[in-house]
């Protein structure tokens, strides 16, 4: 089926955009996996569901984009109205999902500190009795080289000794490791909130930036697809 010169340009532009969509799908997938891997050890430290669902949504969207790009490429090359419309609908759904993740990323990054502090204040009291809480705090204090919520004093405030994980290394005295104390070598003097908040803020802004940035690119693809589909349908009706 022949289409006008202008729409022919749109056809090949749409084909090129689909190659770009495949690349954006790969970017989305990589970012989703990276965020999921890096936030996983600390994801239970906040009650914000965004940090659990956001990366998963991007991973799913990244996979779907490859399928959608296939419909777009085939539809553009074959000038198939049905495939072009299918492509536009899928792309619009993806656009909405990415837009939602992007907006949530920028909104949630302002609320993360209160969420983390609230959760840590609740769970620190369970440190001696809850193995899961103990493991979470130990991993947090070891990986981020921090101690307590705002500082080492949080342990004394909750009638607990400073955990060994607040020290990077301890002296061996009489065959046993010395207790972790503020004057111990490698003592972590900073509170974990100071380390955690920037980490989660970076994750939120990354998800927001990727979601909004790629969504805008894909919106252009929706417009091209709709123009091409309308042209193909018009040409078909005039035959």
Automatic annotation (TrEMBL):
For this UniProt entry, which segments traverse the membrane?
12-35, 55-77, 84-107, 203-229
Matching entries from InterPro entries are given as: Tetraspanin/Peripherin (IPR018499), Tetraspanin_animals (IPR000301), Tetraspanin_CS (IPR018503), Tetraspanin_EC2_sf (IPR008952)
Give the subcellular location. Membrane
One GO cellular component, as annotated = plasma membrane
**Cysteine pairs bridged by disulfides in the record:** 146-180, 147-167
- Membrane in keyword set: yes
Could you tell me the keywords of this UniProt record?
Disulfide bond, Membrane, Transmembrane, Transmembrane helix
Question: Which superkingdom is the protein from?
Answer: Eukaryota
How does it sit in the bilayer?
Multi-pass membrane protein
| Keyword field contains Zinc-finger | no
What's this protein's family per the entry? Answer: Belongs to the tetraspanin (TM4SF) family.
What name appears for this protein in its UniProt entry? Tetraspanin
Supply the source organism's classification: Eukaryota, Metazoa, Ecdysozoa, Arthropoda, Hexapoda
């Amino acid at each position: 089926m022949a289409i006008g010169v202008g729409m022919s340009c749109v056809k090949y532009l749409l084909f090129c955009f689909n190659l770009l969509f495949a690349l954006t799908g790969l970017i989305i997938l990589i970012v989703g996996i990276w965020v999921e891997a890096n936030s996983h050890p600390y994801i239970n430290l906040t009650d914000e569901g965004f940090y659990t669902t956001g990366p998963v949504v991007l991973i799913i969207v990244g996979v779907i984009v490859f399928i959608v790009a296939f419909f777009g490429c085939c539809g553009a090359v074959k000038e198939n109205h049905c495939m072009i419309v299918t492509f536009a609908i899928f792309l619009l759904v993806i656009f909405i999902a990415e837009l939602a993740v992007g907006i949530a990323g920028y909104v949630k990054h302002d609320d993360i500190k209160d969420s983390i502090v609230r959760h840590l204040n609740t769970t620190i009291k369970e440190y001696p009795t809850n193995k899961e809480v103990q493991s979470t705090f130990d991993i947090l204090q070891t990986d981020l080289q921090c101690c307590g919520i705002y500082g080492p004093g949080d342990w004394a405030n909750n009638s607990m000794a400073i955990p060994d994980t607040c020290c990077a290394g301890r002296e061996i005295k009489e065959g046993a490791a010395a207790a972790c104390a503020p004057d111990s070598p490698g003592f972590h003097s900073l509170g974990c909130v100071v380390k955690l908040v920037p980490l989660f803020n970076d994750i939120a802004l990354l998800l927001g930036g990727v979601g909004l940035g790629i969504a805008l690119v894909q919106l252009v693809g929706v417009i091209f697809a709709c123009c091409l589909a309308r042209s193909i349908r018009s040409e078909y009706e005039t035959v």
